[in-house]
Amino acid sequence: MRSNKGFSLVELIVTISVLMIVLSVVALNFGNVIKWQVNKCVESIDDNLNSIKVVTLSDSEKDSTLKLSEVDGYLYMSINDSDAIKLGKFNATVYYEDISRDNEASIDVEDQEITISFNSNGAFNEINEISGMYVKSIVVNKGSYTKKIICERLTGKHYISE
C-alpha cells in the first residue's frame, strides 16, 4: 500500500495561481492608496489657500499666511503660525518666477520652509519675502505619483492640475 505524503503538482499550481492573483490585487490597491494620499494632501493645501485668501480679502489688516515645512520626511502645513498639521510623508517643491516670467526657480520644502500669502487685492504676495519672486506652482509627489497646484500671481487664483 502506498502512502500519500505530499502535494500533487496540480495542487501546487492552483495554490501558487491563487496567491499570484491575491498579490496582484494588493499591489494594484497599494498604488491607489498612494494616489489617494497625494490627492488628499494637495486638496488640503488648496482648500487652505482658499481660506487664507478669503480671510485676507475680508480683513485687509490681517496678514494670513500658509507655511509648508518638512520635518523628518513628513510634510507639515500651518496657517497663521498655528499648530502645524501633519500631511504625511510627501515630497513638496514650490516653483516661483519673477514679475516678467523670465526667471524661474524652485525651493524644495525639505530644504527651506515656504511661506505663501495674499495681498489685500487677492493676489499672491512675494514668496518667502524674496524680492520680486512669486509662487507659480506647488508640486507634491510620493513615489511616481505627482499632483500640482497651479497659482496665478496677479489674480490669486489657483487650481489643481495633474
Could you characterize what this model shows?
The chain is an alpha+beta fold. It is 31% helix and 34% strand. The chain has one domain (9-161): minor pseudopilin epsh fold (3-Layer(bab) Sandwich), CATH 3.55.40. The strands form two sheets. It has a five-stranded antiparallel β-sheet with strand order 5-4-7-8-9, with helices on one face. Strand 7 and strand 8 form a beta hairpin.
SSE topology sketch:
Layout: H1 9-58, E1 65-71, E2 74-79, E3 85-88, E4 91-98, E5 104-108, E6 114-117, E7 133-142, E8 145-151, E9 158-161
Antiparallel strand pairs: 1-2, 1-6, 2-3, 4-5, 4-7, 7-8, 8-9
Short account of what is shown:
It is built from 1 helix and 9 strands; from the N terminus they run αβββββββββ. The chain is an alpha+beta fold and 162 residues long. A hairpin with a 2-residue loop joins β1 and β2.
What features would you highlight for this structure?
162 residues, four-stranded antiparallel β-sheet, minor pseudopilin epsh fold, alpha+beta, 9 strands
Mean pLDDT: 87
Give the helix proportion (percent range): 25-40%
Q: Helical stretch count?
A: 1
If you compute it from the alpha carbons, what radius of gyration comes out, rounded to the nearest whole angstrom?
24 Å
Unreliable spans = none
Q: Which fold name fills CATH's third level, the topology?
A: minor pseudopilin epsh fold
What series of H and E elements makes up the topology?
A: HEEEEEEEEE
